[in-house]
Batch of 2 targets.
Target 1
Amino acid sequence: MPQFQPVQPVRAYERIVEQVEEALARGDLSPGQRLPSERELVTQFAVSRSTVREALRVLESNGVVRSRPGDPKGPEILPYSQSALRKQMVRLARVDELSLSELIGFRMIMDGAAIQLASRLRTDEQLAEMEQTLVAMREAIDVDFDAFSEADVAFHEAVARVSRNSLIQVCNEVVRGVVLGLIADKVSHATNSRALMLESLQHHTEVVEAIRAGDGHAAARIARQNLYDYYATYVPTPDQPHLQALLDD
Amino acid sequence: MPQFQPVQPVRAYERIVEQVEEALARGDLSPGQRLPSERELVTQFAVSRSTVREALRVLESNGVVRSRPGDPKGPEILPYSQSALRKQMVRLARVDELSLSELIGFRMIMDGAAIQLASRLRTDEQLAEMEQTLVAMREAIDVDFDAFSEADVAFHEAVARVSRNSLIQVCNEVVRGVVLGLIADKVSHATNSRALMLESLQHHTEVVEAIRAGDGHAAARIARQNLYDYYATYVPTPDQPHLQALLDD
DNA sequence: GCCCACTAACTGGTCGGACCAGTGGACTAG
DNA sequence: CTAGTCCACTGGTCCGACCAGTTAGTGGGC
């Protein structure tokens, strides 16, 4: 007997979405190009305009296209953006399926890996870039916490670029955004924020030193420890061992 | 002068989506509950059915609800699932600029981290589970490569579960799927596939031994080395240093 | 009394047509 | 050649309709 699979009805708009996404995956469609107008798609797909519109709404919600009223050139194919990925991660985090400790643990892994890679693959120019972001952090301490946080982001982005792995870059950026969105207010209201910033700067300087020396393990270890020290207080006590397991002994 | 922000028109269906998602975030709506029927929503939101449907399509594409034709109870609020997150990650991975070396490098990081966490957080039952998947791998060698690959997946999934970090689980699963999709045929056509499988099993056994001993670093190192040995030949030579940078010296 | 087949009132999926406000390109007047 | 007007066309929304399918309630047969 052949094995039969349960079949659920495939709706017309879904097949439109599939066709567009396939064209995108095959390269027949690339960012910047335009889709035909809705009324034109109606004739091409031989469906009603409602169906075309439902497909476009789904594509739009997935960050694939964008429609603008009155634009004679039609819906635009968007370049890939992390916004949809971030949206899903935020949703995951909001449903409490994703605990803060998981997010921070993931950041420790990603950041540590990026730094380890950076310490082996960096060029001298890139090292200089990283040191430049350290200077910016020091200057930002005297402004306010937001400025410091911004400079901190710039540092981590520079490191992620050097890692030459765009998956790391994206994951880092997304998770950082989610974490910040979850606890930014708590951190910025900390009484001893200046001390925190100074300590963080110190850690970052040590990381760069280790990168300069090419000691990837030390650099990654310091980075993970820094993240742990920075965030551990916001993590429920029973979850803290999950983070400590990522620290070197 | 006040700083003005560019405003873009908010479409009616977007406000419906927002209202539903807010209700969900506030807890006024929980998984398992039902939304009113489309025609009922038409009166509640005071919009047309097309608009309601576009909102429902977006919610459905985001994995928030599911509509079934004929169901008098109306669209169902779904429990959170990672499928939408996975979809976005697959989209990211499919963007052509993502090279095989980046994917494999990411796998080395993820798998290594999962194994390091597992070696510290595992219970005895979980260790037994992992050893069980090793037995399955050994048995699968005598069947065929697909069976072995399946058992291998089971092993890595077991490890990811023990890591207690669902982000790692999802990332691992997604990246593994993408990598396999890219080079599965090449691997399975290798002439010495039996030797490869035996070697892989040997490596996995060593990993489990290190996990049993609680030596997270050794376990992670072996795992990364295993992945490197397994996949490096498929990576263009100029990219190989990017992977070697992830191996311990 | 219970069980089963039937019916009817829904459901979502799709269609076609209509109107509106706005865009942008072409066309015209200067 | 420029500046202004105009109009074809865009997407956003609405309405009404039909269909196939599910489901719950009804009714009849046992």
Target 2
Amino acid sequence: MKKNKAALNAQTSQANFLKLLAHPVRIAILQILSSNETCVCHLEAALGYPQPYLSQQLAVLRTGGLISDRRDGWNVYYQLEQPRVINLLNTLSDLMENPLEDVLLSAPNCPCPKCNQSIPQIAITKKIPLGAEE
Amino acid sequence: MKKNKAALNAQTSQANFLKLLAHPVRIAILQILSSNETCVCHLEAALGYPQPYLSQQLAVLRTGGLISDRRDGWNVYYQLEQPRVINLLNTLSDLMENPLEDVLLSAPNCPCPKCNQSIPQIAITKKIPLGAEE
DNA sequence: GAATTATATGCAGAATTATGCATATAAATT
DNA sequence: AATTTATATGCATAATTCTGCATATAATTC
């Protein structure tokens, strides 16, 4: 009897989908986008990674159909194309008992229009410990 | 001002966890285990992959803490260590509108004790189309 | 139209993962 | 203790992903 490998079509596309998510920066990007449409410079300010690096990760997510972009003047704004992905990330945080992250809420020195509409965002409530910056 | 990368600790461990799952054969294994404690030879019969290959994928899942093994005589039986992983896989199937797989239910010619306790398993209800085997 | 600002792409080397195959171990049977 | 059955490990090569950096594009302002 010849041994035939099972096709595993569904599992293969599921695995490919998970590969899109299996990256810390891409997870962080999706979490940020889950609360707001966001421009690249905001991600840069929030995450501290170089712009070309973030653009590449955004390209991975965009090519994978998870997010979409919209240009407005100078800025390109990204948003979730498939908001239900957040269900998955929530199930994951739940499973791993990781609290939803903090980091993602503050984007000090973000120059984007949305961050500078009127009032500076968190600034006052956030204490910067001595020696944190140089 | 120096740009500091965000730590992304939670996201990093989440990504590592997803990497364990982001593989078609490993997903299939977990789905099979979700319904039953299962020995390696059963997986071999169900999936049609060579035994050493499956043992390697099992080792990945075992090392990652997702499954555990128990020896009984000749056979080693694996079971889910973290049954809530199935929530995640279900959320995923749901998201991708993949029906839960069929393939995984039949393991023709499985020699393991569990498959040969008394009655042949599915045999009768399952029609094998002409020319499916040679 | 030249300079500026925001974002995207290309490419290369490093690192990691996937896969196949030979062989090792471990319990059971004789 | 030799053989058989079930499973695990080691290693080599191929394939893929990661990451950093240089450069390209595209809209805007001067």
